[in-house]
Amino acid sequence: MKFVKAILFIAITAGLVYVLDKPWAPAPALGPFLSPFCGLWQNSEEVIDPKTRVTLQLDSLRDEVTIRFDDSGVPHIFAKNDFDLFYAQGYITAKDRLWQMDLQTRAAAGRLSEILGPATLTLDQQSRRLGMGYGAEANLKVAMTDPRSREALLGYTAGVNAFIRQLAPKDYPIEFKLLGYKPEPWKPINTMYMLEQMTLTLAGRSNELAMTNALKKYGRETIAQLFPDYPMLQESPIIPSGTAWDFPKLPIPKAVPPMVPGDSNLVSSKSLTTLPPRAPKEEGIGSNNWAVGAEKSITGYPILANDPHLELSLPSIWYQVQLHSPDMSVYGVSLPGIPSVIIGFNERVAWGVTNVDADVFDLYKIKFKNEYRNFYWHDNQWKPTHKREEIIHVKGQLKPYREQIIYTHHGPVTDSDGTFGELPNLAIKWIGHEPGNSFITFYELNKAKTYDDYRKALTNYVGPAQNFVFADNEKNIAITVNGKIPLKYKEQGKFLLDGSSPADDWHGWIPAEQNPFVKNPPRGFVSSANQSSADTTYPYYINWSFAPSERGIRINERLQAMTNANADSLRMLQNDNFSVLARTLLPRLLSILETRPLTPKQKAAHILLSNWNYQNSPESIAASIFETWFPLLGQAIWNDDFASPEAPMEYPSRDRTLYLILKQPNEKWFDNVNTPEKETLPDVVYQSFNASLDTLTKRKGAMSPEWQWSKVKDAEIRHLSRSIKPFNAPPLVTGGGSSIVNAMTKRKGPSWRMVVELGPTPRAYGIYPGGQSGNPGSPYYLNLLKKWEKGELNELIFLTSPDQKVPHLASSLVLQKR
Amino acid sequence: MNFFIIAILSAILQIFAPWWVIAIVPFVILFWRPAGSPGTFWTGFGGIAVPWLLYGYYQHFISDGALSDRVAKIFMLPNGILLLLVTGLIGGLVGGFSGLAGYWVRQLFRRHPAPLSGPGA
């Protein structure tokens, strides 16, 4: 009996331990996860006592580093040389954002499946086939040959690893505990992966297959009418019209008419290699920046503003930091994983970036000799291909997944148009594969003192092309459409290119100093909002489509009218909710509705819209109706002509749609070809108006405060995992929208708002949604969110020495060499 | 007394050792030291659960439940305190059964029933 009981209780205990020590996906192993000695409870953090002074002894430091934290949790790093400076940046960034760094580099490198299993295999395959590793390796080689980037990468890496090394499992960020894996050592190539990821986010799309499908259906003439290379209705280009292009122009490569696939099949975007189609260009990823000159500001010095719009996440994509060394003192936001500050200011200059959207991602149709794909036809000869083996380890599977990727001189052959059997036959030519050292641009901007330093820094930059806005305390303002931009014939890459013809290759680059730029323009300000880089007088082709013009138009109108500006004037412009789109279109739509008999419900909506001030404010119901209506109107016009699931086609742009409605009301496109009746513009307007009210009623019931714009838009900020909902931000109340200066959509928006008043000492303000810490158990996880949501900014504390006495300073950390 | 020894010893060992040391400490203590049968389960249960609850509550408290309340929601629990009770229950069960196992193994090596209170109790 005793024996039975002894065995029984030993067995129960052992069984419990076994069950609790084993992960039950998606749940982690409950024993270690729940134990207060090593599990989730350990990730609870309290507010650090401002008087705390900690000293750490660390390997491979060269000298002492002092880090002061302010009460927002921002580190101010004081080092005596570059190596130590970036060492400390790596150490501190890892302390706050280690899991983010791990996840983002894994995503870029196609290594998510190692920790997440088969569910992410297709994502990893996409990264591998796109050649993210190929690009990162090429860039690392270049970076390691320049002593400045080499020092920064090695310092940063040593710092991150110094942090990782002293972690016990109980100290791992909560996401490691939830997913049941360990942080691995950081490598310099991870920084390159982060840069690749940025290039992918901002310049990793193409729509030439969809354009080629449309070309095939409608022919060149119609396509030229519907897809013009410059907005037809309205535009306010980044480089003001009238700016002189006084440089010796390079000859433009000879144009080649677009290829139209000869076979009867339309080009399918469905890759036959099981890849989902890459997402088409989407609106919402873009940014605003501007600088007003001394004559427009009350301070007598320029003021600069920037708000990059990206998918908002927790933790934020940005991390605030001040970096101070004997020849550098810079404050701004960094990207975890990349040494230096990406957007910021120092004692003399400030800069910011918005995306250019240059066409630096092209697809080439490849003619292979046979299905072995060892040779491809180019320049009238068979040229050998190269192969790169990609090996993806998948959690829970013994054998890794292997795939051979074929490379031509264009790039990896990964997509298929369905004309080469099961095999991919479309090569990608992408700026992400171009070796370069974009890091040096940021490094030199961090140290820049003058306008010339800024211009020189930009020449190192490869991609993703950015509009770099600039201001300095010598009262210069400038903006440069900057990046390595291929020299192309007009519309080269608008449609699928011929991979066998040298005439379709990229023909070198637009010389860096000939990229569109303007310094101290007569209008007294510079700005960009992703719209057309320059008007049609600029001699080179950059792209045929840019972000719609409304944000740029609004910013330029307000800056034009602005006098005696201070930081707060620019902050208010960042929060501007005015809809240029509604101003342009709505009066016409409402006058059309007036010709129809309306039901009481429709009348009520009509009255609301007629009285609307075009402000997409959070409480506006009119904004909800208009924002629901406009996309439905576009679909009502174009769906019958352009919707084609088996061979997706590009839709005409917003500007083109507006032009059609306002200037070409009798065009055939208003007729729905799927009905026997002949629809006209008024029919389409009336039907889509009705449909928008139905849509809102279906979602939110009869018209009520539930129809307010913030509730209809329902903006949210998700945890980076996108799946751990309790780590998301609480529901947000925001206005704005995708065509609005305050570009807050459901999931994308101002990921960092910064305003810098230049002057003898800079005064700067900034905020992002979230907080410095990536730990949901930290008081610094969401501490900046409320202020951001209200459109307010924090004054940024710019220290000149580590022992400076200023308010809002908190604890300090001293790193010493062991 | 056994309860205190288990609580203190397990708390100290858990700082260095893996979590499953909580399945060993009650076993060893109740194998080594005599104890009355009826309370054995609760001695082991409490010896592990009490330090878990106290330490967990401290961490919940200093962070105002920032993490525990969120993780609780992952497990479909309304708040961190409930997650803490589940935590205590799970630790306690391991401790309780481990203690019982130790007690009965000790009985195997004895001819007579154990006295109700040991010499040191």
Structure, explained:
- The complex is a heterodimer of chains A (818) and B (121).
- In chain A, 32% of the residues lie in helices and 17% in strands.
- Chain A is an alpha+beta fold and 818 residues long.
- Among the domains of chain A are: 184 residues, Penicillin Amidohydrolase, domain 1 (Orthogonal Bundle); 112 residues, no CATH class.
- Chain A has an 11-stranded mixed beta sheet with strand order 1-28-2-3-7-8-9-10-18-19-21, covered by helices on one side.
- Chain B has one domain.
- Helices cover 69% and strands 0% of the residues of chain B.
- Chain B has 5 helices and no strands.
- Chain B is elongated and about 55 Å long.
- In chain B, 50% of the residues are buried.
Helix and strand layout, with pairings?
The complex is a heterodimer of chains A (818) and B (121).
Chain A: H1 2-20, H2 30-34, E1 53-58, E2 65-70, E3 75-78, H3 82-109, H4 113-116, H5 121-130, H6 132-145, H7 147-165, H8 174-179, H9 188-203, H10 208-226, E4 286-292, E5 303-311, E6 313-314, E7 319-325, E8 328-334, E9 343-346, E10 349-355, E11 361-365, E12 375-378, E13 381-384, E14 386-392, E15 401-407, E16 412-415, E17 426-430, H11 438-447, H12 451-458, E18 466-472, E19 477-482, E20 497-498, E21 517-519, E22 525-528, H13 550-561, H14 567-574, H15 580-593, H16 600-610, H17 621-642, H18 654-663, H19 681-700, H20 709-713, E23 718-719, E24 748-750, E25 753-757, E26 763-767, H21 785-789, E27 794-795, E28 809-817
Parallel strand pairs in A: 1-28, 3-7, 6-23, 11-20
Antiparallel strand pairs in A: 2-3, 2-28, 4-5, 4-22, 5-24, 5-25, 7-8, 8-9, 9-10, 10-18, 11-17, 12-13, 14-15, 15-16, 16-17, 18-19, 19-21, 25-26, 26-27
Helix pairs in contact in A: 3-7, 3-9, 6-9, 11-12, 17-19
Chain B: H1 2-16, H2 25-32, H3 40-62, H4 66-74, H5 80-108
